[in-house]
Design brief:
homodimer; alpha/beta; five-stranded mixed sheet
Chain lengths: 505, 505
């Protein structure tokens, strides 16, 4: 097996020890252990599961600054960003602990027997049960919050599913430290052996073997469109197909409505550039597409954005491969006959991605769907539209998105209202007067959206609703209390939401 | 296009007029109209949508006995069954009207802004929106409750999705009458043009064109495994893949636990035979597999079941094709070297399926997975197991199921408890001391289950939870009240369940 070592994102140099890498036999062993742990793990009380999640957070915190230093070096991301991401990761575990305790995830429903009815109605009780062992693919761009102990792992463990993580090879050191924290928490909380495993390897074989293992019941993935679709294909071809929750691709259109643009074009341009270049643009929610109607303020927007971008001193990108793909994507745009280069950032050494802003007109965009594809990094395309009809036509052609943002003033409200039904069909989240790059980890968040933003639009990968991805309903008919799961005995667990004859109790 | 006429199930003779059949151009027109109706239909108030569903029920009732007579002749099913099914169909529409009014389907979540936090938290509000136009494939075996105005149509309309039905060619007359009732209700309730369409045709091209139409956002299907998987494949190959909710195949294992068998083997045999032969065995939940541990009462079970089956005078099956497939399936079992024929029902003329009960031993079952496949009709296979371990091994090999049934007495409770975790992983519904062929249309029902019982195990096609299949979440960030959907304005619709900061309000 090829050697796997940490790579310093800024220099491209390997550092630290070589990591043990894993192959098909390790996948089989991890999945067998996860399967063996499943019934025990899903059977523990909600409070114990919640405590385990919180303990994982505590163990991550206990890694201290070593974790931040390792993640900084492997990812090239700055300290403040990674400290924030660590807080987000721990907060996310705490959120799911709260969710587990509140019990709404169990979806309890009780339809009491109606013995007097003709024919008599049986007693029917429903709860959600976890799907089984879940495979999680760590993402490169959030080495903490979307990786080893990220949202997929937290929500799957919260649902009662053992987790086998395929660690991202761009941050093996960070992954190993976090995996150690999870395993320490599992031991401290006396969780069943096999509830968590962490596998690493440089090629695609490891991940393919994991998705194909018959014990894996669902897959969580954040990454590229090609990677996500490859996993979806593998999962669909199994003897028993399983769901792949892949969060893949989004250009997150920002609509500059006329009144807002006229009133504060320059301010919007500066805000846009800050959102675009943050974290070297390596966000799923990066604003890669800007739609504007020709008119007052657009030149001010371009000037302010261009000025900020031109002065932008680039940070290293996560990996050499990501940098190369970014360079190729921006080169295609720069060389496109119908695309003008509005601004370019400063050049940087090594794997630093020069920020870039391009523009085209609506007709050219409509003629070439490739212009709507994601270029992962700090690159964005402004589409100049003649009027609302053209803006709508461009939006209609845009693929499914994680987010759509409206920059608007009160005078834009009527146009916004006309556009909203279309926006709802295009994206999982609609923002007003913000930037899409902030994603709250909360209950009303949707970090999902129509294909190809995700492979399953009916879900989210951020926020408490993410737990639902790993659950399925089971109905119990005329089971005596002793055989029912504890939460469905009698009137159902006190304090947990439930539907009694369809009425929320 | 080939002519489509009603076929008398009992005689195989065509009767009545030829129906207009539909082709690709009709599919395109119906889908375009459904798409055009979508925003208007999803935008109407919940009360209006609920009233529409109730009106459909009233229009079906108003068809009177003509509908029953037509369905009897086309399906070969008896009057009492079809009258019951009509009641179920109307009741189902009423159930979804109640669900729509109660508002739980909207999944409202509000996370109020926290302006004092650093950084400030935006206002986030979430609701479920309908996916878009839904294609529904009518099933042959429930010409009312799983067909034109069946559970898929009712739940999709309840969710706010226009519906294009591909009527089942086995009951074009019944389908046309019910479609007329739905269209009359749509007119009476001033629903948008295109909210419902009904297409018929004899071949597979019509259905394929429907699933491939880019305006179709989801598919509901009840039928054969081969049919369901073909639709899944088409849907996955689209430029934008869409979910197919296919309910396909189940043998619904019945476990005869030792104490129950010893105490009432004969009674169980008689009950089993009644469940097996009801409706010519043409139920998704037909008990096609019986698992028993050798011991007291098993011979009494076999004798009683055999006696009832041997005396069973068969009813016509739904179609000649279904009858031919049934004959082929039972012939395979009868000719299998490791399978004994325990009982056969009376022969009948035409498309009447002779009931049949077979047996094999656990080792033979384990050696030949084909023995676990569904034979649609009144055929069942008894697997004789030496002990609990063998019973468990057989169960472990069985594919995903809609139901598993425990026939048990108090003395069987410990064994039942040991088996339950496995049963939960195998089926969507677990019954005690009943027969799987009754499916309540209620809130805690799951008519679903792991593959290949269905293509999406995280759902149900019967009961109020079926509405969730056609919804996806959208999050609104910092939208002013005027732009928010009405149900998310202010504190959210009064009386509808909602999570405020994760707490059920």
């Amino acid at each position: 097996m090829p050697e796997l070592r940490s790579i310093d994102a800024a220099t491209g140099e390997a550092f630290g020890p070589a990591f043990d890498t894993h192959g098909p036999a390790d996948v089989a062993a991890a999945c067998a252990a996860a399967e063996a742990a499943f019934d025990a793990y899903r059977g523990i009380a909600a409070e114990a599961r919640a405590a385990f999640l919180e303990r994982i957070g505590a163990e991550i915190a206990a890694l201290g600054d070593d974790l931040i230093v390792m993640a900084m070096r492997e990812s090239g991301l700055p300290r403040m960003r990674l400290e924030g991401e660590r807080g987000r990761t721990i907060g996310q575990l705490k959120l799911f602990a709260d969710v587990v305790r509140r019990g709404g995830w169990a979806g309890l429903r009780i339809d009491p027997a109606l013995p007097e009815r003709t024919p008599p109605r049986p007693d029917l009780r429903l709860r959600m049960i976890p799907l089984g062992p879940v495979a999680v693919f760590g993402a490169s761009n959030f080495p903490l919050a979307f990786s080893t102990a990220g949202g997929d792992t937290a929500s799957a463990l919260a649902a009662g599913c053992p987790v086998v993580v395929k660690g991202h090879p761009a941050h093996p050191g960070t992954g190993a430290m976090v995996a150690g924290a999870i395993l320490a928490a599992a031991r401290a909380c006396a969780m069943p052996e096999g509830v968590f495993a962490h596998l690493v390897g440089a090629g695609n074989e490891l991940g393919a073997a994991l998705v194909q293992d018959p014990r894996i019941a669902a897959v969580g993935f954040t990454g590229s469109r090609s990677g996500g679709l490859a996993l979806v294909k593998l999962a669909q071809a199994r003897a028993v197909p399983v769901p792949v929750y892949a969060e893949m691709s989004s250009v997150n259109p920002v609509l500059l409505l006329p009144a807002a643009l006229a009133a504060r074009g320059g301010e919007l341009g500066a805000g846009f550039a800050a959102s675009l270049t943050m974290g070297a643009g390596q966000f799923c929610t990066n604003p890669g597409l800007v739609l504007a109607i020709e008119g007052a303020g657009l030149e001010a927007f371009i000037a302010a954005a261009g000025e900020a971008i031109a002065a932008h001193d680039p940070a290293p990108m996560l990996t050499g491969g990501i940098h190369a793909a970014y360079e190729a994507g921006t080169a295609l745009l720069a060389g496109h006959a119908k695309v003008a280069t509005l601004a370019q950032g400063l050049e940087g050494a090594g794997a630093r991605g020069q920020a870039a802003m391009f523009s085209t007109d609506a007709a050219s965009f409509l003629a070439d769907p490739a212009l709507g594809h994601e270029v992962f990094g700090a690159s964005s395309l402004l589409v100049r539209c003649a009027d609302e009809a053209e803006l709508r036509a461009v939006l209609a052609q845009v693929e499914g998105q994680l987010t759509v943002t409206l920059q608007m003033d009160d005078a834009d409200a009527a146009m916004a209202a006309r556009l909203l039904p279309l926006l709802e069909r295009k994206a999982g989240r609609i923002l007003r007067n913000g930037w899409p790059t902030g994603v709250e980890v909360t209950h009303a968040m949707v970090h999902g959206g129509p294909y190809p933003a995700t492979s399953v639009a009916r879900t989210t990968s951020v926020g408490s609703m993410a737990i639902d991805r790993f659950l399925r309903p089971v109905s119990y008919q005329n089971l005596p209390d002793a055989l029912l799961p504890p939460e469905l005995r009698g009137g159902g667990t006190q304090g947990w939401p439930k539907l009694i004859d369809g009425e929320l109790a």
